[in-house]
């Protein structure tokens, strides 16, 4: 099977795990702090602004919970998003409001955000689809001017940049996912960035039960009664640990090589597919934009995409469409609403395999199977 995603793990990650075992400290500790510091350097911010968590989803929940949303408040987000974003909004008691997207990039432009914003809008969640930075510069400026909190869902975009600035640092908060299908992998894990240092300190507390002290042993060095708890407000336990942080530190060092290979695979797809009849490839990146190349997606004529996906699966190639439109999910209460860009894209878009473990021969196998599937459809009787 040629997989859509596949982590790249090896001897370096095993050695890092062995070091954790040797130290007999698997929980939140020095390796967690070191990974946070290294990731902060990657972002170009101070380590006090980032917190390593047990998932990117936890970052979304913490970000939304930290805003103190009320039942009448609204949060705008693109409909083609992972459901964790909508769940994080809905479970605060606020209302997710889904906006349209550009049908070719599946990212919202500022105009799509503006169409969804009302007087009740407290926050905007901007997704960088497939690693494409999108219109985040204009969206961030608009949110600042309107006093709206901007949360960047940068789960797909750990190495994406605009004019050298890392995506995720344009808004007030951001999160990244390091689950087993992502570019930088820790098994499960995530990172949250918080622009305001005071808010960052609060989120660090909320991520560990609301405690002001993160370690009983560390607190024992500064308090005569270190077992007494200081909890300004209750939180939950969603912090990362040294085992996953050790893997993350190695993956972060390898990240440039991962992205370079992804870029090579994308270039090979482009050279093979740009002239294939009936296939649209992703738009070119604007000047100054760099993508992590998490997804590589094509768009096919209506009615063709689903059949092609089945034919590729029969050939041992797994493809999918990410992300199914959330405004069509009954649980979020938007049934019947029409978003034309989302509707167009959701009937045509197919994500092809993309990960550094693919050889050039694998990519050409995908292309050959795609060509065969399209030809079979063209020859089928009407």
From TrEMBL:
Positions where N6-(pyridoxal phosphate)lysine occurs in the chain: 182
Similarity section: Belongs to the DegT/DnrJ/EryC1 family. L-glutamine:2-deoxy-scyllo-inosose/scyllo-inosose aminotransferase subfamily.
UniProt-listed GO biological process terms: polysaccharide biosynthetic process
List of catalytic residues: 182 (proton acceptor)
Pfam families per UniProt: DegT_DnrJ_EryC1
Statement: the UniProt record of this protein carries the keyword Phosphoprotein: no
The protein's name: NDP-hexose aminotransferase
Molecular-function annotations in GO: pyridoxal phosphate binding; transaminase activity
Keywords from the named record: Aminotransferase, Pyridoxal phosphate, Transferase
Cofactor(s) needed by this chain: pyridoxal 5'-phosphate
Domain of life: Bacteria
InterPro entries assigned to the protein according to its UniProt record, in alphabetical order: DegT/StrS_aminotransferase, PyrdxlP-dep_Trfase, PyrdxlP-dep_Trfase_major, PyrdxlP-dep_Trfase_small
């Amino acid at each position: 099977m040629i997989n859509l995603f596949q982590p790249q793990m090896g001897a370096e990650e095993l050695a890092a795990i062995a070091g954790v075992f040797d130290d007999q400290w698997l929980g939140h500790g020095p390796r967690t702090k070191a990974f946070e510091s290294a990731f902060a350097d990657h972002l170009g911010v101070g380590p006090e602004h980032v917190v390593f968590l047990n998932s990117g989803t936890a970052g979304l929940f913490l970000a939304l919970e930290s805003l103190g949303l009320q039942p009448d408040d609204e949060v705008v987000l693109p409909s083609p998003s992972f459901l964790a974003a909508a769940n994080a909004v809905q479970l605060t008691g606020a209302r997710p409001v889904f906006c349209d997207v550009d049908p070719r990039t599946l990212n919202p432009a500022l105009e799509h955000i503006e169409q969804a914003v009302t007087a009740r809008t407290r926050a905007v969640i901007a997704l960088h689809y497939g690693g494409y930075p999108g219109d985040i510069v204009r969206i961030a400026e608009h949110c600042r001017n309107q006093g709206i909190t901007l949360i960047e869902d940068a789960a797909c975009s750990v190495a994406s940049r605009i004019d050298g600035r890392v995506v995720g640092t344009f808004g007030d908060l951001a999160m990244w996912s390091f689950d087993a299908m992502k570019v930088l992998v820790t098994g499960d894990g995530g990172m949250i960035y918080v622009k305001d240092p005071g808010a960052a300190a609060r989120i660090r507390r909320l991520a560990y039960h609301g405690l002001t002290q993160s370690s009983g042993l560390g607190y024992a060095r500064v308090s005569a009664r270190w077992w007494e708890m200081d909890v300004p407000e209750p939180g939950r336990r969603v912090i990362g640990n040294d085992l996953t942080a050790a893997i993350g530190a190695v993956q972060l060092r390898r990240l440039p090589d991962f992205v370079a290979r992804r870029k090579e695979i994308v270039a090979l797809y482009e050279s093979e597919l740009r002239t294939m009849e009936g296939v649209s490839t992703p738009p070119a990146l604007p000047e100054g934009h760099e993508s992590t190349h998490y997804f590589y997606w094509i768009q096919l004529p209506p009615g063709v995409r689903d059949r092609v996906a089945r034919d590729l699966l029969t050939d041992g190639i797994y493809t999918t469409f990410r992300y199914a439109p959330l405004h069509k999910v009954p649980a979020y209460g938007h049934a019947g609403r029409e978003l034309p860009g989302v509707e167009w894209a959701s009937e045509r878009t197919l994500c092809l395999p993309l990960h550094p473990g693919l050889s050039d021969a694998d990519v050409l196998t995908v292309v050959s199977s795609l060509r065969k599937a399209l030809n079979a459809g063209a020859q089928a009787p009407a």
